[in-house]
């Protein structure tokens, strides 16, 4: 059991003393020359940034001058709603594909094999191509296929190959990486802005930072340490915008900054009855073939043959803060039911509670993975750049809508997805030439122009014909039948 409970995921590496500061850079693949055929000259570049676990309201108890300035210069959503399960790899892959998690299939941070009992933690799962390449293409690949140059630094999913293709400019973090080091953050930013956007002329880059998730887990979302990390994020946002300015990219680069999920305080200290599956009457791990628990507030169980109903009945209603579902009975709004990788029984806890297996082994002060309706699970969303309105506060939207927004900004045709541009286009300034970048919009525009021309021509023909008829009629009336004018008036009315 211990190997199952010894968590090496990114959430826990700090606790395991993995702050090594050891930095290595993966070589960047050279990108081929850009195919500019069909691309318009008005397309702006796009930088997608994720600060892992940055809750929507983290700027409320900390001074964040750079984020505030960015909001004045651009758009700030009140919050956004992530897909369920609200954990890192699944939620990030939703940003990259616009699909709910049951549709893109990256259902957990961990890869697992229910037959061999093998599990891979967050980092090693990054390298399992088949786990990510599961029917949904991330935006890098779609952009590359349509002639754009894409890059990614540390973003979940970067290491994998999709239909034989990788994001061509990429940097994957080493095995034991310090995700919190501000100096490294700046080196990574210099690389993305200076080398990738400025020198290599990339069109799109996704950039990932592992904080303030780690601080939120370790110290809790209400801790001074989390607030200090938000200050570091804010300084970093200022640094990014300065670098963009230094390289003359401000008017040609849109920036979207968001996160995968939020964070909430874990309730402990004898105040609450913890959820420990082994203590539940009628439940036994002897009835379970494979389980994924001890991972925050959600878990999955594969009962042994013939044991599903027994396990389900034992767990259902066993704890007032534990929700137990057969996977096909999961609430449809969570979109976490319809995928073969999901195990037959899905568990999730109310805010503040985590699900333990044999004994309590989770000691984080903050957690995520809860229902995406819980306000503490909502991330922040900011955007700035030539295509965004200034000083706008947007109503909330789901993060599945970020993907079609990004495709629109890049002028590429999206893959099938669960979002819609209608949910975010209010944030965009109308730009006459933007549609020229988007083949789909281009066809629509051409159709509208064509239809207008035909309509105009027909109206003109109608006016000329009518005028001519009236003129002739009036002339005839004046010349030959002045006495029958009243009768002709009736005829005119009926003939029209
Ligand atoms: Zn995360």
From TrEMBL:
Key word Ligase present in the record? no
Assigned keywords, A-Z: Membrane, Transmembrane, Transmembrane helix
Annotated transmembrane regions? 447-471
Q: Which Gene3D superfamilies match?
A: 3.30.1360.180, Alkaline Phosphatase, subunit A
Q: Which CDD domains match?
A: Enpp
Q: Do you know which Pfam families this protein is assigned to?
A: Phosphodiest (PF01663)
> Under which name does UniProt file this protein?
Ectonucleotide pyrophosphatase/phosphodiesterase family member 7
Q: Which species does the entry assign this protein to?
A: Dicentrarchus labrax (European seabass)
Q: What lineage does the source organism belong to?
A: Eukaryota, Metazoa, Chordata, Craniata, Vertebrata
């Amino acid at each position: 059991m211990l190997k199952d409970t010894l968590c090496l995921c990114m959430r826990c590496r700090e606790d395991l003393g993995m702050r090594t500061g050891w930095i290595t850079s993966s070589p960047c693949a050279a990108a081929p020359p850009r195919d500019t055929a069909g691309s318009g000259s008005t397309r702006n570049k796009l930088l997608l940034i994720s600060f892992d676990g940055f809750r929507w309201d983290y700027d409320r108890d900390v001074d964040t001058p750079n984020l505030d300035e960015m909001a004045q210069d651009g758009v700030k959503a009140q919050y956004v709603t992530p897909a369920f399960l609200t954990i890192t790899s699944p939620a990030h892959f939703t940003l990259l594909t616009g699909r709910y998690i049951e549709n893109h299939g990256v259902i957990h941070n961990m890869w697992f094999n229910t037959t061999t009992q093998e599990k891979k933690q967050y980092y090693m799962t990054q390298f399992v191509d088949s786990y990510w390449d599961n029917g949904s293409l991330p935006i890098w690949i779609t952009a590359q296929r349509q002639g754009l140059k894409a890059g990614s630094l540390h973003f979940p999913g970067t290491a994998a190959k999709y239909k034989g293709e990788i994001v061509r400019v990429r940097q994957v973090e080493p095995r034991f990486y310090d995700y919190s080091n501000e100096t490294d953050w700046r080196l990574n930013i210099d690389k993305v802005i200076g080398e990738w956007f400025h020198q290599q002329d990339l069109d799109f880059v996704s950039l990932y930072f592992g904080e303030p998730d780690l601080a939120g887990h370790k110290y809790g979302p209400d801790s001074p340490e989390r607030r200090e990390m938000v200050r570091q994020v804010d300084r970093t946002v200022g640094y990014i915008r300065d670098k963009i300015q230094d390289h003359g990219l401000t008017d040609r680069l849109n920036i979207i900054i968001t996160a995968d999920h939020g964070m909430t305080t874990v309730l402990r200290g004898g105040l609450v009855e913890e959820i420990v599956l082994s203590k539940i009457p009628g439940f036994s791990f002897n009835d379970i073939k494979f389980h994924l628990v001890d991972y925050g507030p959600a878990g999955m169980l594969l009962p042994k043959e013939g044991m599903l109903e027994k396990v389900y009945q034992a767990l259902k209603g066993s704890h007032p803060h534990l929700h137990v579902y057969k996977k096909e009975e999961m609430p449809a709004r969570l979109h976490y039911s319809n995928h073969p990788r999901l195990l037959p029984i899905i568990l999730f806890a109310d805010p503040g509670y985590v699900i333990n297996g044999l004994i309590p082994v989770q000691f984080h002060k903050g957690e995520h993975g809860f229902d995406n309706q819980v306000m503490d699970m909502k991330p922040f969303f900011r955007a700035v750049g030539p295509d965004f309105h200034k000083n706008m506060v947007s109503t909330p939207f789901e993060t599945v809508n970020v993907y079609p927004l990004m495709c629109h900004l890049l002028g590429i045709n999206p893959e099938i997805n669960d979002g819609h541009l209608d949910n975010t286009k209010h944030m965009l300034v109308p730009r006459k030439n933007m549609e020229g970048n988007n083949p789909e919009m281009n066809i629509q525009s051409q159709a509208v122009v064509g239809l207008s021309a035909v309509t105009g021509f027909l109206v003109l023909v109608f006016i000329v014909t009518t005028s001519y008829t009236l003129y002739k009629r009036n002339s005839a009336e004046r010349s030959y039948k002045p006495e029958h004018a009243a009768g002709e008036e009736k005829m005119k009315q009926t003939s029209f």
